[in-house]
Structures are given as structure tokens and as C-alpha cells.
Amino acid sequence: MGQTYQLTATAAFGLEGVTARELRTLGFADVKTENNRVAFTGDAAEIVRANLWLRTAERVYVVLKRYPARTFTELFDGAAAYPWEEWIGRDSAFIVNGKCVRSKLMSVRDCQSILKKAIADRLCRKYGVKWLPETAERYSVVFSVTDDEVTLMLDSSGEGLHKRGYRTLNVDAPLRETTAAALLLLAGYDGVRPLIDPFCGSGTIPIEAYFIATDRAPGLTRDFDCTAWKQVPEQVTEQVREQARNRYRPDASFSISGYDVDPQAIAVSLRHARAAGAERIRFRQGDVRDLRVSEKNGLFLCNPPYGERLEERAEVEKLYADMKKVFDRAEGWRRYVLTSDKNFERIFGRKADARRKLYNGMIECCFYQYFVNAPSGKENGGVQSGKEENGKSDSKQPLTGETAARGKEKQSGKSLVAAPRERFTRYHRTYRRGIMGCRERQRETGTKPESTAATGRPVTPRERA
Predict the structure, then answer these.
(1) Structure pTM?
(2) Cα Rg for the chain, rounded, in angstroms?
(3) How far apart are the first and last CA of the chain?
(4) Which of 151, 174, 222, 360 has its CA 20 to 30 A from that of 87?
(5) pLDDT digits (tens, 9 = 90+) for 288-334
(6) DSSP state letters, 386-409
(7) What are the start-end ranges of the E strands in 224-362?
(8) 5-155: CATH, from 3.30.2130.30, 3.40.50.150, 3.90.1150.10, 3.10.310.30
(9) Residue 43 CA from chain centroid, whole number
């Protein structure tokens, strides 16, 4: 084992715990969850392995230095003191990007310029040159100035890790590959249970499920910036890739299906599946209302239409209600739904056993999870219902006595979701009676409510006292 580096993997909001669990499963050391990122350690081979195997991380960074800086002089001096020549060669190209949060130094452009100059000055001095050609391998320097502390890092991934290489076309509201993989891991999918995505779109969820079922590294067919670094020898990269190729089991047994009402979406899914080597996935055109399931104890996992536009609301609400009827016909199947609709549970007709706040791009969503025969709350891939590793979950335990309540519901013919509406109606009716009675007394006595002269609003009891 060579030199050990401080590494960090970034993750989307709410998925840090999933990424941390991945790292521990892969055998990485010193795993620690932070805001939107997970810290860990590893040598050159493990930099490549993290990029190759992480399904839910966005990028992997090598952390070089942390130091305080409240002025541009302190920013420059701290960067110039780091031995950049240990990483960046005389002919190497390097760019500087970053962000500033809650700090005295809030101009990202100025920080970029100062750090670029500090690094260039150091390299020119060490290599005895007046200018740098920047014609060889690329290094991407990333800085973060947060609460007046500077963190300098190198981006080892290059393009974001969600770019697996198979998705060349998109449909409306595509789901990012890393998010799709995270949903599958949250659902406890391991390739054993049947999986159906009734709104497959461009095929992302079924293809990511195929990668899990066949133990295929998501980054197996793409390159990373770190593979061109002098710190990562070519034989190390090839050894890590060969190990990944040996683990891949394309002949593994699985049942993965994707459906969509749009024939163009199915055509795109088939194209992406061929590019990913996942031709064994079943893609079919069809409406979710016509779906019939013969297998038992599977998973429905989907990213249905959200109905963000007002004119789509009624149609989407009917779709959600019909979706539940279809899901209820499948014996022993769990249901996992990602949507931005905050009224989903009311429309679907059942409270979720667990919820998790996530983002699909810039859209705030909730991942609703419905377990089958899971009274202990441990049916979610070993994760306790209502709890998550990084504390980002907005989950709740299943309602006590839900089964009995549903029995009463069948006898009375009333829906469980109608109860809150009835309570609101009774409250509203009582409130209206009180208002009307007050107005009737005012007409009889010829008086008006007290009000302040300045605002005309009714006088409160405290003001009257």
C-alpha cells in the first residue's frame, strides 16, 4: 500500500448516508459523513476504485490542505506555501474552480484568480521557468471557502460520476443515474426480487438495477482524470479495472422490467440498455393501468409524473389513485415512489411507512416507501423504518392499528383519507355558525365590533383590558 490520502466524495442532499454505507461496504477506511459529502481515506489504487464503484456519489476529491483566510493575502500565502510540484508537472494543465459560503471572502472570481496566481508562481519558481505551457495531463483544483476556512482539493473524477456513458438521449424530466441508484439501494434492491418500473422514461432505474444485479461497476467503461496523474501509475489503474471486470456477472439471474406509455421513451430505453450491455432488461410500451403481475414479492420503484403544471393536476391525481389499485393487485410487492407532490399520500390513499426528502435536479421531492409484511421496520435492506444513517430522513413509523382501521373502512365504505377532510368540514361548519351568530346579534343590537382608530382592525382582548 502506497501513500494514504484524505479523500472526500460529494453526494446529493439527503444521500450522504447512502454514500457512506457504500464506502463502508467497499471496505474504505475512516468513513465520516458530513454535509453533502463523505470523508474517507485511501491510496492511489483506492482513488481509482472509489471512482469506479461508487453508485451514488457525484465526484471524488483528494483533499490537499485546509487553512484559515479572512483576507486575499492570507488566501494567497496559504496556497503558495503548499508543494504543488508534488502533483502538478511543469507541462501539466490546471484549472481552478470553487465556491464561497458565509465568509469574508465572497467573490468566487477573485478567489479563483488569486489561487491560480499563487499556484502558478510556486510552480514557476520550483521549475525555474517564467511561464507554464499547460499542454499535458489536466488537474482540476477545487477550493471551498466556508466560514473563513479554505479547503484546497483536486477533482479526481473529471466528469461527474453520474455520467456512466450509456445515456446519450433524454426524455422529459430525466432522473440522474446517481439518484436512481440511491433509490434502489434505499429500497434494499439486491437483484434477487423482481423489479418493475412502470414509468421507466429513458430507462435509468432498470439499467442501474441491472448494474446492481450483475455486480457491474458503474464506471467500468469510462475514464477519470486521476488515471492520467503521475501519482496513479497505469498498472494500478489497469489492476483495479481488471478486478472490476472479473466481478461482473452478465449471466446472473434477475427479473427487471420497464414500462412506459410513450413509445418514444421505450425506444430511448432500449437504445440505452444496448449501450450499457443490459439487453436482457424487458422494456414494453404500456399504460400502468393495464399492468398485470404474475410474480410475487417484488418491488415497484418509479418516478411518475409530478403534475407541476396546473393543467396536469387532475390527470396526475387520477393516475396516482389508479396506480395504487394496480399495485394492490400484486401479492407481496413493496412500493417505492419518488414525487414532488406533497399530497401524494392523500391521493394514493395510504400513509407511507417511511419518507425521505430528496432532490431530483432542482425539484424538491419525497421518496415514499411502502413495506409489505414489515411490522419490525427492518424490511428496508436492514435500515430501521423511520431512521436513516445521515439523519436526513423525514420518515415516520407505520400507523398503529392500521390493519384494524382498514377493516372498519371496508365495513363502513369510507376511505381513511376522508377522515381529515370530515374533521375539517365539521370544524369549518362550527366556525361559520359562530360567525353568523355574532353577525345576527350585531344586527339585533345595532352595534359594530370594537376596532382601533389607527388600523380599523378588531380590538384584541389584551388591548381591551
Answers:
(1) 0.80
(2) 28
(3) 79
(4) 222
(5) 999 999 999 999 999 999 987 766 889 999 999 999 999 999 999 99
(6) T--TTS-B---PPPTTHHHHHHHH
(7) 256-260, 282-285, 299-302, 334-339, 354-360
(8) 3.30.2130.30
(9) 27
